[in-house]
Each structure stands twice: as structure tokens, then as C-alpha cells.
Amino acid sequence: MKQIIEEKVTIKRSILNSIDQLTPTKKADFFVDLGYQLQLDHLLHPDVRKDSRSNLGLPEQAPELYRDRKDRTEKPADFILRVYEDWLGKGFARSHLMNLDRPLYDALHNWLRKNPMPEALILPTKKEMIDAELSEAGIGDGAQLAFPSDSTVLQKRRRLYNAARNRAKKE
């Protein structure tokens, strides 16, 4: 029995040493893959799930920046309809817009204070996207997805994981 415990400790140390050798980005990728293998993908941040931007064909960078537009009178909604028309209604949300072109996101936010959202502009908020995902999963009316939220250890690990992943993105 003692030998089995020693072997497990040796294997654990070997695995942890191997993980420590990885770059932060590769380490984040490893843990995302591990989350899928352990069927814990519902605990992963939406941006790293397999159905995220890269798999939906959403742009990784802005096709055209709002501040560089030729027609300076073009309204933010019209600009979005023109530049992002291929992605509207296909998983493209305001949070994507914020990451791709922050001045456009801010201009849209200010413009929407005095103007209604055009019906042709399908640009949901993050809340609306999450509500749609919950609805698709059949979770609504206060129902909860099984999640060990009472475990402060898991909450802390998830918070630290997300912090490390976000810092790795900035590299």
C-alpha cells in the first residue's frame, strides 16, 4: 500500500513539473483541454469554449476601424451593419465589438442613448447571449445549472484560472 501511495506521489510530481515547464499560453490550453476531457466544459469561461469566436468564424481583428472610416458622418449602427454584416446574427455580440474596436463600441453606446437599436442590427449584449444559451439548455425561470458553487476552493481556483488565462492573452 505504501508503495502505491509513493508511486502516485511520484506521478503527481512528474505531471506538475511538466506543467510548470509550459508557457502560460500553453498551460492555459492544457487546462482547457483537460476541462473538456473531464467533461467540465460548462465551468469554462465562454471565450475559451470550443464554440467560441474561432469556431464560429467570427473575426479575430476588426475588418475596418471606426476611427478610420472614410465617411465621417456615418453613424455607428450603419458602420456596424456595413462592416460586420456577415457576422450579425451568427454569434457576434457587443462584447466582441468591444474587443475588436473599442471606439466603435463606445460610439454605439453613446448613440443608443438617444436612438433606438435598428431592427436589422442583431447585436446582443452579453446578458442576452447568456440568456439565449440558458434557454437553449432548457434552463430558465430561476433553475440552476449544476455547479459546485458552495465550494470556496473551486471558486478560488476558477477565479485564479480565469485571471491567469486573461494575463496569458495579454502576452
Walkthrough of the structure:
The protein has 2 domains: 21-50 and 144-171, no CATH class; 51-140, no CATH class. Helix content is 54%, strand content 0%. α5 packs across α6. The chain has 8 helices and no strands. It has 171 residues and is mainly alpha-helical.
Task: Describe how the helices and strands are arranged.
Layout lengths: L1 H19 L3 H14 L15 H4 L19 H8 L10 H7 L1 H10 L14 H11 L15 H19 L1
Shape: elongated
Helix-strand makeup class? mainly alpha
**Overall structural domain count:** 2
Percent range for β-strand residues: under 5%
Overall mean pLDDT stands at: 80
Q: Cα distance, first to last residue?
A: 45 Å
User: Largest beta sheet, briefly?
Assistant: none
Please provide the count of β strands: 0
Unreliable runs: none
What are the secondary-structure elements, in order, as H or E?
A: HHHHHHHH
Q: What radius of gyration results from the CA coordinates? A: 21 Å
The portion of residues assigned to helices is 40-55%
Tell me the number of helical segments per DSSP (H or I, 4 or more residues long): 8
Defining traits:
171 residues, mainly alpha, 2 domains, 8 helices, 54% helix, elongated
Short synopsis of the structure:
The protein has 171 residues and is mainly α.
